[in-house]
Amino acid sequence: MTFIPKPKVHHPALQKNALGLTRRDYEGAITTLCAGCGHDSVTAAVVQAFWDLSIAPHRVAKMSGIGCSSKTPAYFLRDAHGFNGVHGRMPALATGANAANGDIIYIGISGDGDSLSIGIGQMSHAIRRNVNLLYILENNGVYGLTKGQFSAAADKGSMSKKGEANPMEAIDGALLALTLGASFVARSFSGDKAQLVPILKAGLTHKGFAFVDVISPCVTFNDHEGSTKSYAYTREHNVEIVQADFVPPAAAITAEYDAGTVRNVMMHDGSWVRLRKVAEDYDPTDRDRAYAYIRDAQSKGEIVTGLLYIDEGSQDMHGHAGTTAEPLTALPYESLCPGNNELQKLQQRFR
Amino acid sequence: MDRVNDFAFKIATANGTGSASANGLIMQAIFRMGVPVTGKNVFPSNIQGLPTWYEIRVNKNGYTARTAQFDLMVALNAATYAKDVAEVRSGGWLLYDSSWPLDERLKRPDVTYVGVPLAEMCNASFKGVRERILMKNIAYAGALAALLDFDTEIMRALLKEKFGRKPALMDSNQKAIDLGFNYAKANFDCPLPIRLEKLDKTKDAILIDGNTAAALGCVYAGATVGAWYPITPSTSLMDAFSGFCQKYRRTADGKNRFAFIQAEDELAAIGMVIGAGWAGARAFTSTSGPGISLMNEFIGLSYYTEIPAVIFDVQRAGPSTGMPTRTQQGDIMMCAYASHGDTRHICLYPSDPREAFEFAVKAFDLAERFQTPVFVLSDLDIGMNDWMVPRLEWDDSYRPDRGKVLSAEELDSAKSFSRYLDVDGDGIPYRSLPGVHPKGAYFTRGSGHTKHATYTEDDVEYTEVLDRIDRKVQRAARFVPAPVVRKAAAATKMGIVSVGGCHAACMEALDQLAKEGVALDYMRVRGFPFGDDVRKFLESHDINFVVEQNRDGQLRNLLTLDTGFPIDRMESVRYYGGFPLSANHVVDGVKAKLEKAA
Q: A-B interface: how many C-beta pairs under 8 angstroms?
């Protein structure tokens, strides 16, 4: 367990965001994960992203399933409601909560066991429904809490701590999300906060299901030589193809980059995501070519990272369902009950 | 002997041939004549081709339970001839399609045959294969109208209501009715001794199925989120909810004041309901036994994290896939204690569609007041068959009981907030909804937690919360619908205890047994946990016959488990073959036990 002492009194010089809050106001309880766990870095990036966007913490709902990753919502945004549900079933809880109250910002934290084995069905269908949710898959290729079994995300040939090679193909969450029609797909690395934070901000602003696969090494069970989810391996094989910058609403877009390599995507709230292509032949709005590109890179042993795909034109679950702009939880009972007169009229049908 | 307004008949056809609309017409016509009527649809798990039956019982005294013996059989399915003719009572009638000679398998010396050339007449009068098949079924309704003395004006009016906007359909249906009617009039001595006569006993009643009524209850209760996975026999509940919402919950600009989610499976369906309940909506799912099996894990989460959820279990015959289109009360035990660990759930047991409507509303109030899952245990017979029940009434002064939910103002002025603290000493803590106020924030977790909603593995902290939840659910015994008790005319030390859809058969059986000199008090339980009144009834009788529709006597076991009442003072009377319960099941069962004791 990492022990990070946190002073109760904030340093007066701490920087404040538009709401007058410091980063400390976006933190949570002290982590109980292993020292050096990739997940703690993701938590730090989440804190940064919310702070940067000046989102009131209590307007957020933190959803998670079961596993090391799913514990982390306790470690950020202490003023937000959290829901640590059952294994692999966070998407259903998030879907229901979102259906009831779509005005809240939903963040879901899951892991590769939670998402790609027991919960692969629910994750898939939440993607299909385009539930408005930032979904972070903290991916370490291993079951940590039960001491080191391979997960479905473990690469073929990757070695376990005990020295056994994984004989089966990996399920790649990002590729799966692409084929399922996800409207926002990104991959990043817990060790690259500069890349991860803008992706999370874009994901929080995206209206729909924002899938972010974050390679997040397990220092205890999957950080040895021969593992393809270790810090060393990921650093060595990580190839960033699209850099995302997040530009808040009303901020001027300046042409810093060469024309043709930068693409500005306007988000629903008027903010912009600026996608800078590092790989010249990559198009983050072409689903099929994105898929092929990632597969090609994989065959060369490269882990492609960045904001891989975005479609801001899609409808989210509420769009499909045609619900009122007002959240269902805010509708007065009088507008829901047809009353006795209608009931009597209706019953002519049953005579 | 004339049997006016007291007989039963059955129609045997093949699934998917349009017989449902003929049968509906017959039912409604009898009902509009003011005569009490019940219909039981006995259908296969199939879309087209397999045998299907429709049983109609006419009873001037208002007995509505299924009867297993029929005065008249309409035998139109060669695949089931032998079985069908065997169900006709001695001296009864059999209507068959005399376009072909009477089948050997239909012959019985004590049955009178009524041959109507349905196919021949319809082939001559209608074009197209599909129309000929459909109209053949409408034509038997016409023949029955003559044989049983229907009011033909009422039938005409019904056709007009149904097909008023489609004159071509109206004309062909009326033509088919006339074909059957005129043939029967010309060739038989109409009406038969079993016949109808206008009464005045249905004017304050409706014909409705329990799934439709329950769906209406959800609409009136203000439920906004319905999540489900299709499963027989609960599907029509969600279909009806969606239909009513489209009628009543659309804004002027076409937006929906409801979310209706067809989930990927039952696990997701209940998860969505819990998520929506957590966020503050009234949310529900409808399913059947196999769905409840799948939902068990989430139900435990809902219980332990204290999130309201309403679950309709339209029970069908189990175990496993069982008989999806047959009825049973096989989930009583499972629902009472669903999920691993120590759990106990509020259950409501409606006996007919009217109670399905009322208990649907009650279920949401209880779920929110007690912050826990609530089951409404209906069954296929209640859910899918048309029952004659008193008109539904709605009290416009009703307002939902949302329970102890803290507003932003209350949270703002509160010194502190602990989600699972028993502030009022009634076992029910206060809850906060996401997005309302920073002071309301807490971490909902299915793992061990303290009264302050923090993680724990400490025995004392853990036990404190678990014990409070137990007290809370026990307290609900005083708030679930009280049992219905009917005292025998004379004092007796024997009683019948029953539940849900057994009610109609029990009421008829009580009268029959009383006539035979067996006086019995009666109690129908309507909610779980059981209250003191349930125990008192049991204690005031030397023998309690527990009537239910499952193999293992689940209600009897549950009564002992929950009240501590000795199981050997309860005799089990059971029928679980999948058909709705008949009075003779109860009468024979009670008499057999009495003979054994004597």
A: 217
Question: How confident is the model at residue A10, as a pLDDT?
Answer: 66
Using the predicted structure, report yes or no on whether residue B127 has a pLDDT greater than 60.
yes
Residues 163-222 of chain B with CB under 8 A from chain A are 206-208, 216, 219-220, 222
Residue A258 has a pLDDT of 57
Which residues, in sequence order, are bridge partners of residue B547? B498, B573
Which residue out of B25, B225, B241 would a mutagenesis test of the A interface target, given it has the greatest number of A Cβ atoms within 10 Å? Answer: B225
Contacts of B274 in chain A (CB under 8 A): 85, 92-93, 96
Confidence label for B598 from pLDDT (cuts 50, 70 and 90): confident
Q: Which chain A residue's Cα is nearest to B444? A: A83
Contact B127, B168 (CB under 8 A): no
The answer to whether the CB atoms of A92 and B393 lie below 8 A apart is no
What are the start-end ranges of the H helices in B331-489? Answer: 332-336, 353-370, 380-384, 408-413, 459-475
Segments in chain A below pLDDT 70: 1-10, 252-260
* Options 3.30.70.20, 3.30.470.20, 3.40.50.970, 3.40.50.2300; CATH of B208-390: 3.40.50.970
Yes or no, beta carbons of B276 and A333 under 8 Å apart:
no
Which CATH number goes with the domain that contains A155?
3.40.50.970
Which of B443, B452, B455, B456 to substitute to test the interface with A, most A CBs within 10 Å?
B443
| Nearest-angstrom CA–CA distance, B286 and B313 | 6
As for the ipTM of the complex, it is: 0.96
Task: Find out whether the peptide bond into B233 is cis, omega within 30 degrees of 0.
Answer: yes
Q: Do domains B208-390 and B484-597 have the same CATH topology?
A: yes
User: How does A178-212 read in b/e, with b if 16+ C-beta sit within 10 Å?
Assistant: bebebbbbbbbbbbbbebbbbbbbbbbbbbbbbbb
Q: What is the sign, positive or negative, of the torsion defined by CA atoms of A293, A297, A299, A300?
A: positive
Question: From B32, which residue of chain A is nearest by alpha-carbon distance?
Answer: A351
Strands A60-64 and B386-390: unpaired
Nearest CA in chain B to A348: B206
Q: Is the pLDDT of residue B489 over 70?
A: yes
Residues B375-430 pLDDT 10s = 999 999 999 999 999 999 999 999 999 999 999 999 999 999 999 999 999 999 99
Instruction: For residue B83, give the amino acid letter.
Output: K
pLDDT tier, B362 (very low <50, low <70, confident <90, very high otherwise): very high
- Residue B519 is given by DSSP the state -
Please work out, in degrees rounded to the nearest 5, the angle formed at the alpha carbon of residue B62 by the alpha carbons of B57 and B68.
35
What number does CATH give the domain B484-597? 3.40.50.920
Tell whether B264 is within 8 A of chain A (Cβ).
Answer: yes
Q: Is B400 on the interface with A (CB under 8 A)?
A: yes
Residue percentage of chain B with pLDDT more than 70: 100
From the list A80, A122, A347, which residue is nearest B441 (CB)?
A80
Q: Which residues from A are below 8 Å from B265, CB to CB?
A: 121
- At residue A259, the pLDDT reads 47
The Cα of A24 is separated from the nearest Cα of chain B by a number of Å equal to 15
Q: Which domain holds residue A217?
A: 23-335
As a whole-number percent, the residues of chain B with pLDDT over 90 amount to 94
Model confidence over B174-219: pLDDT tens digits?
999 999 999 999 999 999 999 999 999 999 999 999 999 999 999 9
Facing residue for B279 by CB, picked from A79, A97, A351: A97
Enter the CATH code of domain B3-195. Answer: 3.40.920.10
Within 8 A of B31 by CB-CB distance, chain A residues are: 351
pLDDT of residue A332: 98
Q: What pLDDT is attached to residue A256?
A: 53
Domains of chain B, by residue range, sit at 3-195, 208-390, 408-478, 484-597
The rounded distance, in Å, linking the Cα atoms of A23 and A308 is 28
pTM of the model: 0.96
